[in-house]
Amino acid sequence: MVYSLTGIKRLVTRFLGAALLVTLATGAHAQSKKVRVAFGDVLSTETVSMVIALERAKARGVDYEITFFSKEELAIQAVINGQADLGVGTPYSIIQKSKAPMRILFQGTRLVFFPVVDSKFKTWKDLEGQPFTFHARGTGTEAIGNIIAKREGIKFGDRSYVPGSENRAIGMLKGQIKATILDLANKNQLMAKATPGQFTILPGVSNPASDETLFAGMEWIKSHEAQADIIVAEFYKLWNEMSSNPGIIDQERVKYNLMMDQPKEVLVGVTDFYKVSVKEGIYSPIGGGVDVAKSDFEFYTEAGQMQGSAASLKVEDFWYLSPLDKARKAAGK
What percent of the chain has pLDDT over 70? Predict the structure, then answer.
């Protein structure tokens, strides 16, 4: 997810103490020797795969700790400030606007989201001048909305912001929200709970861009190349295993004792979530690369979240591909 210039100004002035801090202790080594990971989200079905990849890296000698922040922008700021080594998010616009020496290492998830509207809206044209609700200002859901509005030749009415697909889905059920964009899991839950014909799913974007990525400051990457290589290799390996066997995530979740405090109804749905997510292309086994970066440039410049033409942007200014190239070579790909 990316941010507007106003969001970046706010980001710089906010203190990390505003974040909801939940630290996973992962070993007995001194804190300074652990890889510090800043995560702008909570441990959930959608994000547990990333923690599993980190656990696998830990088994290879790369100890880590995660700090979960209440907002993604705070996680990105932690990396900028040197208070974290790795971050999870999408820092494209911040890298471009602030010239922060950060680079993306791996594409974790893609922006596979679904526009869901009240059934009184039959097509996108019906949403001309109508209110629309997004996750947050300048984020991926708003980028998708901007692209669709441009494609359809319409302008939305008042824009409102409700963080969390689950919260927007609840708002839809209560009739408080008439049009929004939801992730796969909450779209499915909403449609299952809705009365027949209550909502309509409108066409989205055809080429999803990167959503959550693994990124780091270049100073840390250069001074910890071996650690970066191992972490990216484990992400790449797990994403490819997931592609052929989505059930691996729940198997590894149990192995590493993750999410054990979650309700049974959440845990029983982990494998089904990954089966559908892999099929929908949320978790791509490619992991990133030149073509992925260029596709992202096209998406985010069209959405107005990055400046200039996509063709003028250089992959090396946003990505550091050496660890991923090594992972592919080791896998024989």
Answer: 90
